[in-house]
Amino acid sequence: MPPEERLVPRFAAEPPQEELPYGRWEERLRQELLGAALKLDAEPEDLGEPGPIAWYPDRTWHGHTYVPATTLTSTGYELFGYVRFLPGVDDGEPSELTAYVDFTDETAERNPDWKLDLCDEVIGAWRGQGGEVAAMTLVWGRPLVAGGAIVTAELADLAVDQCELADNRFTLIAPDDYRHDLLEIKLWSHKGKQLAGESLYEGDEGED
After folding, report:
1. Closest of 72, 65, 63, 75 to residue 29, by C-alpha
2. Rounded CA gap, 150 and 173, in Å?
3. Which tens digits make up the pLDDT trace of 37-69?
4. Distance from C-alpha of 33 to C-alpha of 99, rounded to nearest angstrom
């Protein structure tokens, strides 16, 4: 095989290892997430009361497991974030649970033209050649079109992570913003047909 043109981490995170949270484990994650939400400095916005929480597939990177989540509030905002922890060893309990939460008023319900509903958060960095640094980014969401089976993260048309849909939800961990290349998230059918694609920076042009 010829040498690689792009030295970049691919499929760096473990694939999902567990089912979507339920029972006592879901309640523990819920307490961590809502506890972090209570600390949000949202003034003057009234975020309202959180609704049911949608959990997304777990992904593990650098020894930590991330379980993302979203929930709509009674005033129309979306809370999005994740719970991070050290997985248990030899059937032990997970430890060092921490949660990150933010909010937005840009929701799928207010954007009927969306084909993918995405959330993202940088969780680390990867240093490459010539001092270039990739932002290791947690991406989670759901397709808003039917027929999808798997979602990929691509950097300059190179697949750097993928995740099968679980209850129509996915989670990715992938390098972003590396050598001026930006992540694009793509939805595929079982037969390999692309159904949707969206950059994480869609809509940012007007802000620059």
Report:
1. 65
2. 14
3. 999 877 667 899 999 999 999 999 999 999 999
4. 6
